[in-house]
Amino acid sequence: MKIVIASDSFKGSSSSLEVADAIEKGIRKVHPDAEVVKIPVADGGEGTVDTLVIGTGGKYEEIEIIGPRGKKIKARYGILEENIAVIEMAAASGLTLVKEEELDPMVTTTYGTGQMIKDAIDKGCKKIFVGIGGSATNDGGVGMAQALGVSFKDKNGKEIGYGGGKLRGLWDIDISKIDKRLEDVEIIVISDVTNPLCGKDGASHIYGPQKGATPKMIQELDKNLKHYAIVLKEKVGKDILNTPGSGAAGGLGAGLMAFCNAKLYPGIEKILDINNIDEHLMDADLVITGEGKIDSQSIYGKVPVGVAKRAYKYSVPVVAIVGSVGEGASAVYEHGVNAIMDIIPRPMTLSEAMENAPALIEETAESAMRMWGLKSIRATSTC
User: Fold this and answer.
1) Of 53, 151, 228, 247, which sits 20 to 30 A from 205 (CA to CA)?
2) To the nearest 10°, the Cα dihedral for 147, 153, 158, 160?
3) Distance of CA 120 to the CA centre of its chain
4) Rounded Cα–Cα distance for residues 337 and 331 (Å)
5) What DSSP element (H or E) covers 60?
6) pLDDT tens for the chain, residues 1 to 383
7) CA–CA dist 167, 146 (Å, integer)
8) Could you tell me the end-to-end alpha-carbon distance of the chain, in angstroms, rounded to an integer?
9) Which InterPro entries match (predicted)?
10) Would you list the DSSP string of 13-74?
11) Concatenated DSSP letters of 189-226
């Protein structure tokens, strides 16, 4: 029996690899001799670098950069075979780097993300994957572009400061000193966000609140991003206002497309390609996937459905082991998932569940395998 494990992390409790290890332990309690293939996966958010470095045998690079609040921090990214870099903007400009009471998209910057891109180019990388989930910023990617040599000036010819709040003073954009090596680098943005830059479905309105924006700030940030888009079109000739995905990561999607000629791709699809999951699915008997919470949103580029769609091509059944089941989760059954099993066996607090996640995942995987075994028992029964 060959079983492929391809699960997302359980955010806040277990990484993708830790989830896979726990599932394997559960499998081996029932089928100790099974062939188990573990493929760490992610959807472009936090954990993407670890997923690809571990999954492909890459290496880590650690550098000092400017964090989202303008202070120096340490951050790391990955370099894979063929000198391909993989970067998480969350590691440089993410929510987890800012204390809750200090969240403020008016001042947070993507400068550190640009520094990571520059460092990868310095190390000779010609292809760079950038996962842009989990941002603490709303600066349209201006900080990122500043780190790569672009100048954003106010009416007096002075460089504007960090954050989405400073975009209102933008008057001119000078790309004459942009890193020319970008012309020879392919930048691939991993993101499932298709929001435009501005408006009710834009970066500020949809994602601003989780970054600390008040209703008044949201209105101001949205106006600032629109002003930025107008200046960008006028001075650089790039029209990204309504481009799908331009609103990703507080407008970082727009900045990457405008200044780095980046292309946006669905996160899970690119990562499954890099990890060559199809090669392992061709002769698999079962796939076990999962995520922290499965619900109606899981059909929109989340790991379990992405994995299930690949498995469906090879007629391999899929079980999703999850932390919790939310409203509308049954929608995933129409996208290749055959069964959902949550890890909570009895009433418990969220903190208790998160603390004991590995053990609970292991127990659930064991139950899944015992249920899976019922099929073969029934098939061979002579009763």
Assistant:
1) 151
2) -60
3) 19
4) 9
5) strand 59-66
6) 999 999 988 877 888 889 999 999 999 999 999 999 999 887 777 778 888 888 788 999 999 999 999 999 999 999 998 999 999 999 999 999 999 999 999 999 999 999 999 999 999 999 999 999 889 999 999 999 999 999 999 999 999 999 999 999 999 999 999 999 999 999 999 887 789 999 999 999 999 999 999 999 999 999 999 999 999 999 999 999 989 999 999 999 999 999 999 998 877 888 898 888 999 999 999 999 999 999 988 887 789 999 999 999 999 999 999 999 999 999 999 999 999 999 998 888 888 888 899 999 999 999 999 998 765 544 333 33
7) 13
8) 25
9) Glyc_kinase_flavodox-like_fold, Glycerate_kinase, Glycerate_kinase_RE-like, Glycerate_kinase_sf
10) TB-HHHHHHHHHHHHHHH-TT-EEEE-----SSTTHHHHHHHHHT-EEEEEEEE-TTS-EEE
11) EE------SSSTTSHHHHHTGGGT--HHHHHHHHHHHH
Residues 6+ positions from 341 with CB-CB distance below 8 Å: 319, 320, 321, 322, 364, 367, 368
Whole-number Å distance between alpha carbons of 88 and 269: 16
Residue 364 contacts residue 343 (beta carbons within 8 Å): yes
Token pair belonging to 351: 């903190």
Conformation bin of residue 114: beta by default, left when phi > 0, alpha when psi is -120 to 50: alpha
Q: What angle do CA 162, 45, 264 make, to 5 degrees?
A: 80
Of the candidates 189, 302, 305, the one whose C-alpha atom is nearest the C-alpha of residue 249 is 189
Q: What are phi and psi of 318, to 5 degrees?
A: -130, 130
Q: Which amino acid is at 124?
A: G
The residues pairing with 152 across neighbouring beta strands, listed in sequence order, are 173
**How many residues in the chain?**
383
Tokens of 293: 């919470």
Structural domains in the chain plus CATH codes: 2-40+278-380 (3.40.50.10350), 48-267 (3.90.1510.10)
